[in-house]
Amino acid sequence: MDKKALYNLSYGVFMLSTKAGDKVNGCITNTGIQVANNPTRIAISVLNSNYTCDLVKESGVFALTLLDNTITFETVKHFGFQSGRDVDKMAGLNFPTDINGIPYLGWQACAVISGKVVEQTDLGTHTLFIAEVVDAKVLSENAPLTYADYQAHVKPKAAKVDTDKKITGWKCKICGYVYEGETLPADFSCPLCGHGPDDFEPIYA
């Protein structure tokens, strides 16, 4: 199966944030859609290994910031390439807060949607949350960032492999998982975060 075919599905790119007690965190996700009206409901899917997923389960509320086409890779890297278990992603940044007191990204974004979870389903690698929209706000007139735009224009291109050195393994740039072996299968998916070969870098002997 060529998993790159799935890249042609239409996705947005979002910063999902939540607050449970005094614990606050946010992560990058690409799965968020409206699924119902009256009441308006949205669905988001979050990796079970993400700290944000644990906090959404605990709090039952979240803010979904819709990133726009001014986004920088540094912002995506800050919220998406490190874990809130290891670092306070919110420290030193001045965030606005939504109706539930949850900080959200007030820049490089076109809208924010506040949700209250009404149903959740464990999908194995991810949890699907169905939430009622309790508030929504337009933040800018910029176009929303699509996953295709992120792949084509925001995400850095993969570094060239140094063919003069021996490759002993491959490391996932998203979660740090290491695949041992000289050749990474073309259809390989990280067992921890689900990312494909484009998000792996070689480990040299």
What does this structure look like?
This protein has 205 residues and is mostly beta strands. 12% of the residues lie in helices and 36% in strands. It contains 3 helices and 10 strands. It has helices at residues 51-59, 73-80, 147-154; strands spanning 14-20, 23-29, 32-36, 41-47, 61-67, 109-122, 126-138, 167-172, 178-180, 200-204. The strands form 2 sheets. The chain has a 7-stranded antiparallel β-sheet. Strands 9-8-10 form a 3-stranded antiparallel β-sheet, with no helix packed on it. The model has no long low-confidence stretch (mean pLDDT 92).
Characteristics:
single chain, 205 residues, mainly beta, seven-stranded antiparallel sheet, three-stranded antiparallel sheet, 12% helix
- Rough outline: globular
Helix content: 10-25%
Number of helices: 3
> Which strand order does the major sheet show?
2-1-5-6-7-4-3
Encode the helix/strand succession as letters: EEEEHEHEEHEEE
What would the average pLDDT be, to the nearest integer? 92
> What is the β-strand count?
10
End-to-end Cα distance: 31 Å
User: What class do helices, strands and sheet pairing give?
Assistant: mainly beta
Largest sheet: 7 strands, antiparallel
User: What is the assembly state of the chains in this entry?
Assistant: single chain
Task: Return Rg in Å.
Answer: 18 Å
Low-confidence stretches: none
